[in-house]
Amino acid sequence: MFTLTYVYRDSTAVLGPLATYAEPHCYDLCAEHSERLTAPMGWELVRLPVEEETEPSADDLEALADAVREAAKPAPGSPTEPVGQGTEVGRRGHLRVLRSD
């Protein structure tokens, strides 16, 4: 993945590594579209070097799984309700509104 940023003042398009936060005039592109990208006529296209993507390590995957498990734990003292329990009180398309019993 890559991020494309337009700098209108300088008539420049910059293609670089995937941005970590959203910003105006920034667009995320897949590898295929970033390779085919051209700048508007009269503009300069700057391609910043991007590190090769590497496969996540076992430690990375384990850390991610631990974070997901921790986030799924209910907060102390919060009411818990089993998923799928309740009485249907409304429906809109494929979505259902449930009321706790």
Q: What is the H/E string?
A: EEEHEHEE
Order of strands side by side in the largest beta sheet?
A: 3-1-2-4
**Which geometry do the CA atoms define?**
elongated
Count of alpha and pi helical runs: 2
Question: What is the end-to-end distance?
Answer: 46 Å
Described by strand count, sense and barrel closure, the largest sheet is: 4 strands, mixed
Helix content: 10-25%
Low-confidence stretches: none
The count of DSSP E runs of length 2 or more, i.e. the number of strands, is 6
Strand content: 25-35%
Summed over residues and divided by their number, the pLDDT gives a mean of 81
| Rg for CA atoms | 23 Å
Going by helix content, strand content and strand pairing, the class is: alpha+beta
List the helices and strands and how they pair.
Blueprint lengths: L1 E6 L4 E6 L8 E4 L1 H6 L7 E4 L10 H15 L14 E6 L2 E5 L2
Parallel strand pairs: 2-4
Antiparallel strand pairs: 1-2, 1-3, 5-6
Write a brief caption for the model:
Pfam families: DUF3499. With 101 residues, the protein is an alpha+beta fold. The protein is 21% helix and 31% strand.
Write up what this structure looks like.
The chain has 101 residues and is of the alpha+beta class. It has a domain at 2-47. 21% of the residues lie in helices and 31% in strands. It is built from 2 helices and 6 strands, in the order E-E-E-H-E-H-E-E. A 4-stranded mixed sheet has the order 3-1-2-4. A two-stranded antiparallel ribbon has the order 5-6. The chain is elongated. The mean pLDDT is 81.
